[in-house]
Amino acid sequence: MKRRSFIKRTTIAGTAAAIFASSVPEALSQPKPESTQTPGTIIHSVYFWLKKGLTTSEKMEFLNFFQVLKNIPITNTLTFGKPAPTTTREVTDNTFDYNLIITFATLEDINVYETHPDHIKAAQEYSKYWEKVQVRDTVIG
Hints:
This is Secreted protein. The chain is α+β, with helices and mostly antiparallel strands.
């Protein structure tokens, strides 16, 4: 009797596992694709803390800064956003107002960007809106 009970339980468990495995979307069971960024790609992350008391109009004007930078031809990709409403933890910092992320193909490209006249002019023009900026650059290995 014990043997029949064991066989019945293992058969049910095996059937349940097979049903579960077949119901998991294929995309979830596949390994993540490798990054499309090649070794040597530079990820330029810039965090902005805007001045307190800016009007809605001034905040909207600040966003034009990103459009100016986007038009600098040496950039690969450019995106920006506000802090995500993730769980507050000791290791997270969601105190910034905007994060700008630009990728560059090479270290030489970011060096050109940093001294590009449009970048320098835009930073001078729009710096009136921020009280603090932090830059973190990463090279993909």
